[in-house]
Amino acid sequence: MTANAKRIFLYGGLLGGIALIIGVIVAVTAPTLTVMATELSESDHTLGNKESQVVLIEYSDFQCPACRQYSQVISDVVAEFESHMVFTYRYFPLRKIHKNAVTSAQAAEAAGFQGKFWEMYYVLFENQNEWAEMTQDKALETFKGYAKGLGLDTKKFEEDFSSEKAMEKITADEKSANKANLDHTPTFFLNGKEISNPRSLDEFRKVIRDEISKTKK
What we know:
- By secondary structure, the protein is of the alpha+beta class.
- It has a domain at 31-39 and 61-188: Glutaredoxin, CATH 3.40.30.10.
- It contains 10 helices and 5 strands, in the order ααββαβααααααββα.
- The protein has a 5-stranded mixed β-sheet with strand order 1-3-2-4-5, with helices on both faces.
- Helix 3 crosses helix 10 (201-215) and helix 4 packs parallel to helix 7.
């Protein structure tokens, strides 16, 4: 994770910006208190301590502007509490409203096969405005450029991009989201329970800190 990537978003106006984005893209809904298993699979992309008792799962879409905003908040939260929590990113492409939601997920998964999922994660969010409205063919060419910039084997990247294995992971995440009746991104689960999206970095810190305190009792 580069210093530049970790600082691509500004916190000023985060509260209003996220609320506006979510209101425009999808209807804001109160948490349904959906309960989800906290077990992680080998295919999950994680940051932090896998042995911890605090598990934060996000269902996200790389073309979602609100997810873009939250990616930096998550980065800072994990950096602060990485020894006490594990963060897991799962795909939930909003196919009906984001034409490159699946395409960008394929790019991230393909990068993951070469050990650079998180590097591609930040590049995709950082450059969201560049590729979001491209045709899928042009988006793929753009993603290949990102892959090259990350030092990936671009031939393998393109093969993995179109592979069944990549789509299996994306589809599996999507099915679990649908099973939980999710209808918006980002959606967060903390130790299996859906939570209201924190409106600031400080609020997110408090949510995580409170959960860590519970596990120590």
